[in-house]
Protein: CSC1-like protein RXW8
Amino acid sequence: MDVSALLTSAGINIALCVVLVSLYSILRKQPANYCVYFGRLLSDGRVKRHDPRWYERFAPSPSWLVKAWETTEDEMLAAAGLDAVVFIRMVICSIRIFSIVAVVCLAFVLPVNYYGQKMEHKEVHLESLGVFTIENLNPRSRWLWVHCLSLYIISSAACALLYFEYKNIAKKRLAHISGSASKPSHFTVLIRAIPQSPDQSYSETVSKYFTNYYAPSYVSHLMVYRDGFIHRLMNETERMCQAIKHISPDLSCNPSLKSCAICGPAATNSFQILSNETDSVKGLELGELTLTTTEEVRNSFHFDSLHFSAHLQERPVAFVFFKSRYDALVVSEVLQTPNPMLWVADLAPEPHDVHWRNLRIPYRQLWMRRIATLVGAIAFMFVFLFPVAFVQGLTQLPTLSRNFPFLKDLLNRRFMVQIITGYLPSVILVLFFYAVPPLMMYFSTLEGCVSRSLRKKSACLKILYFTIWNVFFVNILSGSVIRQFTVLNSVRDVPAQLAKLVPAQAGFFMTYCFTSGWAGLACEIMQPIGLIWNLIAKVIVKNKEESYETLRFPYHTEIPRLLLFGLLGFTNSVIAPLILPFLLIYFFFAYLIYKNQIINVYITKYESGGQYWPVFHNTTIFSLILSQIIALGFFGLKLSTVASGFTIPLILLTLLFSEYCRKRFAPIFQKYPAEILIAMDRADEMTGKMEEIHNNLKVAYSQIPTCSEESSKAGCTSPCSDQELPDSEELKPEKENLKADYIWEFQRSRSGLDLEVKSCPSASPTCYSPGFAEIYKRT
Structure:
């Protein structure tokens, strides 16, 4: 690839970025798009809707850049949690590392590469990219010591910055643990693989076991039920509520179980609890919706009582609660029985983080699922070889034209060659990669992860391995096969072969940085999918509601992309340093874009507590060692024994540094320190908060919560706590109605006591109470 093709790709992507960013600065001012670009602020109720002046609404402005730049780390921590802060620290660490790398390599390595051979240079835009790489040096060149010294400076700076960042993030994680004093997960242990007993239920087995072995610390437990039918029933109720709400023209409050003061008297759009069957209205007309008889609607949801009771069976999974954090930590760390496949104990995830569907998977199936997903991911990697080979074929059109003569006519048009070889390959590869994240997330779900954050981290690792393998290794290997029709002969030849292949792919890596990096960030801030969906909802469906609460930050896609560009930067630093300015532009642009998205768009419902940082650290060390191995191979090709001899100790020192960090900091991200948990327990005992925490444990881990935080944002002006219903005993269904009776008994068994029944003014299915049985009965 020559410089002109590279400039063509850069020009197209720069123009695309300018257009998209300008459109964003205009569209974000339109009131109809607030739900797309200010979802988090709208959900928190911290943004005022106002219509700017007409000329301001259609004029691009950089005010959002200033706001993103001025946002402090403490503000991000309070708004989006520790994971968001850790991600921004990854970007900042990358900026610091590659600023040093760019200064060293552009000031010393690039001039040495360019003037490495005595030759007559052309104009810059007509030059081949090969003259900017280490390939332009002669064998046994005395200038190779510049590359070796630069490699030492890069490795030392990277390791120093990684150490201080790791130390800083570890302190933030410890502060995060000690600052979350009321988290119910610290007192809760998830027990799986509970043995089945013919004489007693799972709940009785759990109670007997922990009363026998952990009597001083055991508080209570909560069984996990096979609640698929309940969720389907709640979804049906949700759809009915939405239908009634949208049909009614003068709806002022979301449906609730009792009319509030704002909704008016009983003849309103809210649900009303009727005392018995004779009080039901036989001909209720609401807008265009007419319910002729309650019996007809009931028949539409008819089911067998035995079938329903089967859906309420207990699963061999339970949340077990303990008196202190330290007691829960001890139980989760020890082996409960001589059979490790029974009574498996782990610290429970946060209530909002629990992946309820995967809790019903038998524990003995998990290892088979992990093997199956691993085989599926590897198979998909091999399938993905075909599009990567096709992309490499486009970058090697001059080479392919010797074997396929019909391509020669296409090569006569210079601009078409620049488009096809410089811009099109990276675009095609990026489009193919859009299919990777959903599939890897599906594989992570099949593995049986019990928490959503763990599932996202698992998907992040799969996408990371997949991206590095296909974008880096497969690209350089397939390019080698197309050009020379050769493959690696032995493992000993790996450094030398990589040293030959990486400089040849430097042009493609630069164009990939333009397309996936620059243009990808512009698409991220533009939110095209959310914008199109909002347009369809407003114009075609005519839905006045704004579903902005569904967006979560895609750590599983953005972290692998960030680390891939870090890998490309390290491996090309002394080989082809021309890529470094483009990477620095990407990192600076990413810093502003991601901060803007975190503070305005994405909502944090669950987080991992900073556990993505070890992924960043380990991948950066891998990239650094890989760059040293490639440099070692190239020093061997150039017959520089001195440079090769100095590179080997550098690799060993980097490995020792990695092992030290693994021993010093990695355990903090894997386990909870007992010293901190005991101090938190003593502080809560002194302040008298322990009893309150114990009383809230069952409510927090209820499969069907009585009133969730999300439902409080759904849109009624009256709060949940202000709307009271009759006592639960008054809501007990009639004995002849088995359907309602099963639901009522299920909720009583889930709570373990008579709860005060309150309704929540939301159509969300997460709002559930014993009165739900009466809703089903009336409909």
